[in-house]
Here is the input.
Amino acid sequence: MPTTRQIVLNSRPDGWVTPDNFRIAEAEVPPLDEGDVLVRHLYMSVDPYMRGLMNDGGVAYASGFQIDAPLFGRVIGVVDSSRNPDFSEGDCVYGMLDWAEWSVARGGESLRKVDPDLAPLSHYLGTLGFPGLTAYVGMMLIGKPKDGETVYVSAASGAVGQVAGQLARIAGARVIGSAGSDEKVRFFTNECGFHDGFNYRTVPSIPEALRLFCSDGIDVNFENVGGANLDAVLAHANPFARFAMCGMISQYNLKEPYHLRNVNEIVSKRLHVQGFVVRDHSHLIESFIEETAEHIRSGRMSVAEDIVNGFENAPDAFIGMLKGENLGKRVVKIADL
Amino acid sequence: MPTTRQIVLNSRPDGWVTPDNFRIAEAEVPPLDEGDVLVRHLYMSVDPYMRGLMNDGGVAYASGFQIDAPLFGRVIGVVDSSRNPDFSEGDCVYGMLDWAEWSVARGGESLRKVDPDLAPLSHYLGTLGFPGLTAYVGMMLIGKPKDGETVYVSAASGAVGQVAGQLARIAGARVIGSAGSDEKVRFFTNECGFHDGFNYRTVPSIPEALRLFCSDGIDVNFENVGGANLDAVLAHANPFARFAMCGMISQYNLKEPYHLRNVNEIVSKRLHVQGFVVRDHSHLIESFIEETAEHIRSGRMSVAEDIVNGFENAPDAFIGMLKGENLGKRVVKIADL
Here is the structure.
């Protein structure tokens, strides 16, 4: 069996994640038992939700990473050898696997075949993966935008935001985005067909930007950011607006969270504020991929990826993503197919 | 036609409501046109939502009171004379009418007959009225408590809270309440069958009280208070908990609202936080009254009212209610039938 590099949790972050929270370790890949699959990793995903897993105790929906153990996340790989009848050498697979170059999927657990002919493999970590499904669940099952309504998406060029906004546009809504650079705003307006949007770092204030860009109010808020963004949307929302509460990336590295002022609006505006986590909806992934691949093929949906090369760069890629450095879905490329 | 005293809005409150925000005026009752109904008022309701209507511009769901015009609210009265075929002299009626001793319901608008034999007339402003229906909508249509779940109700002895908790108890849930005096806690535990509860003014902290009294977490939160109460419930809620966001009485008289810290919990716990306003559900009132009168008749549901005598005492009754002086639904008695 080969040996593999792994990225293990060296220490827990206290506020912002730092490179010394990680270290690279060398490990032997164990032999396969009946049912096991040996996977050579090609791409791995860095996603905002992982920040919560670095805390002691993890989050409400998942236990977290353990000190001195490898981190784990979404990986695309290729089957090197298999003692599982469902997987054969050469199959491309998705799995929830270690941050490593190689790993053994015990009993084939969490593995699912992906089709390299349908789309570039990296897409299965983004638009055709759980970030895309996250966008679908939040926008279509919770937000339910109607023709002519105004939809607002924060972190709109990100892995989830770009899909969320495009799904709303396809549904006939007017879609406004926000992001942290002019380049990102150009991407989601020019490439993704958002109707308009703004760079939250350069507008005078988010409330003022919302009044300007969402002059009919907001009917659906797809919340990726939290904090001051959420406060401004609460104040600017229309009665009966739906809030798909996907994440709050502005908050994950703060020792003291932002203190929200405008919660009172929930009652008088009869807001529907719904938190969700994509893993509760993973049974939808195959039909989602089929539908979304067709959107991409027909040109109705664009995809932006931000690929960082080199396994050893994963910690920096993750930290940079939390800071908003990436344009589009950030993945780490580990090896060629 | 008789003359009538009215209570008019003298000035808008700046923070807490004060007696000089009101004044008593004398007015002539206008003659009846075709379709009109002259009502002699018996009881009028003072409710937390009215605080929002005192602000300039009112609230999202209703325009507010006008300076120098009478306040208006829910009234029980008796028809004195009628030029409307749907109402006859002597009918007991509910209506959204002026804070006055007499008023004319133009075209009979907002009037509905109530049955004085089914229950004391004042009940139609509380348990058998919109406060009761508010409790029903929030608890049964949003909270949807299941057998064995833990339901937490703040302001639990109030007009809405007492009904909300009893509906949850009838549905088989374990019901915990909180209120601002030991007497109120005794009322909702001894009379209303709440399983337990606490006086939020005397516990060491609300988070600690919730850990003690809701040791299995909270599955349904019926939010009447907001502020620190809501923050503590967010932290203590179970995954997939439902929040029926009925009101935030702790916030209505603050110049600067409480700043909420624990909003991040909405995502990871997949909370369903739903604001609502009873007027969107007023078509349910007749069937609600029928069902709830049966609960009262059978002894499954208790009613506590706090009746203040004298029309001229309405402003003080309202201010006292906002401060939590009342035990049970506060109504102002204006006249005998």
User: Anything to note?
Assistant: The longest strand of chain A covers residues 72-82. The first helix of chain A runs from residue 50 to 53. Chain A has a mean pLDDT of 96. Chain A touches chain B at residues 52, 59-61, 226, 230, 239, 245-248, 251, 257, 259-277, 280 (CB under 8 Å).
